[in-house]
Fold this sequence. Notes:
This is Pyridoxal phosphate homeostasis protein. The protein is of the alpha/beta class. The chain has one domain: Alanine racemase (TIM Barrel, Alpha-Beta Barrel). It contains nine helices and eight strands. It has helices at about 5-20, 35-45, 55-65, 80-85, 100-110, 135-145, 170-185, 205-210, 220, and strands at about 25-30, 50, 70-75, 90-95, 115-120, 150-155, 190-195, 215. The protein has an eight-stranded parallel β-sheet. The radius of gyration is 17 Å and the shape is globular. Bound molecules: pyridoxal-5'-phosphate.
Amino acid sequence: MSIGLNIEKINKAIESSASNFSRNVTLVAVTKTVSVDKIKEAIDLGVTDVGENRVQELVKKYELIGNKVKWHLIGHLQRNKVKYIVDKVDLIHSLDSYELALEIEKRASKIKREISCLVEVNISGEESKYGLNPSEVKPLLEKLDTLSFVKVEGLMTMAPYVENPEEVRKYFRALRQLSEDIKQLAFNNVSMKYLSMGMSNDYEVALEEGANIVRVGSAIFS
Ligand SMILES: *Cc1c(COP(=O)(O)O)cnc(C)c1O
C-alpha cells in the first residue's frame, strides 16, 4: 500500500464521520521512526499535522522540516525536556501533572508563546499507561486557573490494544463524557475543543464516538 492510498482511506472515514457530527477532524500523522523523506512525501500528499512521541526525535525532524506542518508531542513529556520543544510544538497531548504545567508555563512565558495542551487521561486504568486517572483531571484543571501561557484545549487518551476495536468503544465514550462534564464546569483557561483519541487500529470507532483528533501512524506509513 502507498502512503497516498493509506491517507485517502483514513480521510474517507474522517469525512463520513465529520458529516455525522458536523465537526472538523484533524488527522495527526504519527511519524515516530519514520524517515524525513517519507514525512516529506506525506506532507506533499496533504498531511498538515505530524506527531512525535519523543522530544529528541521531534527536535531533529523539526530542524529538517520546519513549520510548514503543525507539530504534536504525543508521548510522555519529562519536565527537563520542555525547554527543547516549547518554541516548536503546536499541541502537547500529554499534560499529566501540575509540575509539568508549571514548567511549561515557565518556559512559555520566557518566549511569550501560549502553549495549547491536552490532558492525558488513563481512561482504561491499565497500569502500563501514562496519564491521569479520570478522578484526577478536575482537581488538576482547578489548579491551572492562575497560569497564563498554558491553555488546556481538551483531553487525550490511548486505548488498550485489542484485536477487536469494538472492545475499546466504552473508553472513547467515557473520555467524551468526561469532556462534556468538564465543559459544564467552565474552568478558567480551559476549553474542551479537542478530543484526541483513536490510532491505526481503532480510529474508526474513535471517530464514531466523537474524536476530532486522530493519531495514526502504522496505517499510514507501513
Ligand atoms: C505510536 C502512537 C500512535 C500511533 O500508533 P499507530 O498504532 O501506529 O497508529 C498514537 N498515539 C501515540 C501516543 C503513540 O505513541
